[in-house]
Design a protein that fits this description.
It contains seven helices and seven strands. The chain has about 200 residues and is α/β, with parallel strands linked by helices. The structure holds S-adenosylmethionine.
């Protein structure tokens, strides 16, 4: 998976990493910034996705498609596909460009719109990466967890750098008897939840 990343995927990853770094310092308004995960989080979620049980592999919050590229490595290795949701048209357009340029269109389906408007069309979920607006996390958690298959995984980003905003949702997850959960201090902090049998 990490040993044979296609050149086109790596090239687009590097481009997006440069753009994200510039975004953070040049005064780009928050909603226009890519706000990507760091590379180590990309590797972390790809490893988990490659170990996920049967069920849909989804992502909530595509931005320009950087984290989706990491997940595409897992999907390719497992002969599965990723469905990723992005509410902003401008970001969805960038993600389309990413997937075309990286040659991963067959592995990734981009859905433009609010995840919460589409969740009813999703069946059982094997893996979900949640990286949307923090105010939407609790509603996304409540929609995803009942759909997780036994052993299914929900990983939520920003569990440490947005801890204050996310604390009620993190506490709910840690006390939720449907899942085993843990906050992992990697990247911006990942809340990992695994659905119990
Ligand atoms: C932090 S960025 C995602 C970064 C991306 N995961 C990456 O690492 O490359 C959050 C994205 O989620 C999108 N978003 C926020 N709420 C959403 C929702 N309810 N449904 C779909 N996308 C949403 C935002 O427009 C934004 O582009």
């Amino acid at each position: 998976m990490f040993h044979d990343i296609p050149f086109e995927v790596l090239e687009r990853m590097r481009e997006l990493e440069r753009r994200d770094e510039i975004d953070r310092t040049d005064g780009t308004p928050r909603l226009d910034r890519l706000r990507q995960i760091p590379e180590e989080t990309g590797r972390f979620i790809a490893l988990w996705a490659a170990s996920a049980p049967e069920g849909a592999v989804i992502e909530i919050g595509t931005s320009a498609g950087y984290s989706a590229l990491w997940l595409s490595l897992a999907c390719r290795a497992m002969e599965r596909t990723l469905t990723t949701f992005e509410v902003l048209a401008g970001k969805a357009a960038m993600a389309r460009q990413t997937f075309l340029q990286a040659g991963v269109e067959e592995v990734i389906t981009l859905v433009e719109g609010d995840f919460l408007d589409h969740v009813h069309g999703i069946g059982s979920i094997g893996f979900c990466f949640l990286d949307a607006e923090k105010e939407a996390y609790a509603a996304c958690y409540d929609s995803v967890v009942p759909r997780l298959v036994p052993g299914g995984l929900l990983i939520a980003d920003n569990a440490i750098n947005h801890r204050e905003t996310l604390q009620p949702m993190i506490d709910a997850a840690l006390n939720d008897e449907r899942v085993d959960a843990l906050v992992v201090p990697i990247g911006k902090g990942e809340l990992v939840c695994r659905r119990r049998a």
